Amino acid sequence: MLAILQGGAYNVREATIGGITLKELAQIASAVQVSSTMAMDALAKQMAADGVDVVGFGAGEPDFNTPDHIKAAAVRAIAENITRYTPASGTAALKQAVCRRVKEDFGLDYQPSQVVATSGAKHCVYIALRALVNPGDEVILPAPFWVSYLELIKMAGGTPVVVSAPESARFKITAGQLAAAVTPRTKALVLNNPCNPTGTVYTKEELAALAKVCVEKDIYVISDEIYCGLLYGGVKTASFASLGEDIKERAILINGVSKSYAMTGWRIGYLLSSEKIAKVMANYLSHSTGSPGSVSQAASVAALIGPQDCVEAMRRAFEERRNYIVSRVNTMDGVSCVKPDGAFYIMMNVEKQLGRTLHGELIQSSDDFSAALLKHGLVATVPGSGMGAPSFVRWSYATSMDNIKKGMDRLEAFLRG
After folding, report:
1. SS3 assignment, position 258
2. Which residues, other chains included, contact 128 with Cβ-Cβ below 8 Å and sequence gap of 6+?
């Protein structure tokens, strides 16, 4: 039980735990909600460990093995004793490899002094927000959004301003919506392109319209482009920083090796920005986490400058899976989905299921639907309630075709009630 003890100029919050009175934990930290994605993935894995035949579609983790040439680079690094601290913002070799990759992929010119490496792309988002946001600053967040964005903004002391993009607009916000959301307190826009959870991909023209607003309103853009290597059906996009020097100065690009190279556990992400912003982020890292793992950095260099045919092979496999899961979902009564253009997720619309009773369970929300599907269908998905999409459920098709087929069969049986 919390008690407020007021005395003089002090207002001390305390908690009584087991008969011992302690000061309250940090309010910002205590308000952080568990990641629904990680919670569902952990539950599915525990069920599987307990012998339950559950099929998991929760976490966005490629099921492919890290390519051999990347693993070999890590083995060499260990053999050569590249196992010590590196500069807090990453090795020179990794920064040069990042610059080379964005030049080849997007025609962008960055210098190594503009690159900062971190322990994963999620860490990149947090560091970018820490570099930009003062307490009370507003950060515009299009919905549906990756579940961690909302919490990361609040963890940095910012105020999330959610701008919803309907399914009818293919989950894309417009320049008009962005402009209407800007206030004198707006500091930045967070944009994920291609998008987790929707698979939405903004065209170059759509990005240019958003960039124009950002320049006119003088706000920064945190552009998370971690899924840029996973585009389907010949769809094209652009890096936000490629839209002109005025927006490049306001942009912090985020990318990493986890999705395109199947390196989720290696924990390497990277940011590209102006030198001023990069220095602030590097300084912050030097006092918080320090450098990412040296062996992982060496492996990431091999990923970025080595052969890219492995990326294309995985992309083709994801496209095949996308086509199958979309086709199956859209043949079932009472659910549907938009065909995504990138990443490896679909957002299944379950609005027609709300109010139904399935297997004795009253479905009043996407949380209810996901819980019932896991309990009675043995399929793990992620409810959209934590992603600003309360009538949707996210499926990740970063799993084998056999699992996808099994999951679709189970969904179909579950919907029959």
Report:
1. coil
2. 222, 252, 254, 271, 273, 281
Residue type at position 366: S
Q: What is the pLDDT of residue 47?
A: 82
Domains of the chain: 1-30 (no CATH), 36-61+310-415 (3.90.1150.10), 68-306 (3.40.640.10)
Q: What is the pTM of this model?
A: 0.92
211: which 2 tokens?
Answer: 């960039």
Q: Report the Cα 346 to chain-centroid distance in Å.
A: 14
CB of 154 closer than 8 Å to CB of 144? no
Q: Is the pLDDT of residue 403 over 50?
A: yes
Closest by CA to 407, choosing from 415, 386, 199, is 415
Cα dist from 51 to 44, 47, 48, 58, 183, whole Å: 11, 7, 5, 18, 53
Tell me what the mean pLDDT of segment 86-115 comes to: 98
Angle at 198 between CA 129 and CA 247, to 5 degrees: 40
E strand or H helix at 5? strand 2-7
Residue 30 confidence (pLDDT):
87
Q: How far, in Å, CA of 186 to CA of 174, rounded?
A: 17
Is residue 131 helix, strand or coil?
helix
13 pLDDT band, cuts 50/70/90, is low
> What is the structure's pLDDT at 10?
37
- Cis omega before residue 160 (within 30°)? no
User: CA nearest 243: which of 161, 144, 345, 175?
Assistant: 175
d(CA 95, CA 270): 9
Whether 155 contacts 299, CB under 8 Å: no
Strands (E), 308-365: 336-337, 345-349, 357-358, 361-362
C-alpha distances in Å from residue 3, one per residue of 7, 12, 28, 29, 30 = 13, 9, 18, 19, 16
Measured CA to CA, the distance from residue 66 to residue 166 in angstroms comes to 36
Considering only residues 261 and 19, tell me which one the structure prediction assigns the higher pLDDT: 261
Question: Are the beta carbons of 295 and 319 closer than 8 angstroms?
Answer: no
DSSP 341: S
CA nearest neighbour of 21 among 33, 3, 6, 37? 3
